[in-house]
Amino acid sequence: MRESAAEPAGYRIRRATGADGGAVARELAAYLAFLGETLDGEGIDRDIAQWQSAYGGDHGVLLVVVEPGGEVVGTAAVRRLEPGIGELKRMWIRPAHQGKGLARPLMDACLAEARALGCRRLRLDSEKRLEAAVHLYRAYGFLEVPDYNGNRRAELWMERAL
Fold this sequence. Notes:
Layout: E1 12-15, H1 21-35, H2 46-49, H3 51-54, E2 60-66, E3 72-82, E4 85-93, H4 103-116, E5 121-126, H5 131-139, E6 143-144, E7 156-161
Parallel strand pairs: 4-5
Antiparallel strand pairs: 1-2, 2-3, 3-4, 5-7, 6-7
């Protein structure tokens, strides 16, 4: 299990702020489009529609990946589901920036944020067709668990100890 990968030259990973609103909305919409989904802001995607409250810092954190020119090109979020249990959400790197070594530093940042939220275990759900993501999760020690959230889009549920 490898952790603490360095950010590629010129890229930064940081917490999203209110000033990132448009960029976050654009990237989360691109994430849903990539999955072939439309926004369900009142249901399964409530965290996207209300990201500033869902990931405002008390119970969750939204991270952004910023390319050397200052544009947001990815996201990832961690939220507390219950005491000691967190969930990784919305991990996305725009396709033009994939393959540049961003996934591991982004995952490392998510694990650090989960620990800071008091989580001792981190869960996620995914689709099997997202092979690179599933490979990354397994490389970080995530193991398959039963469905914990009823996400109709998911085919795979995973968890790891922090």
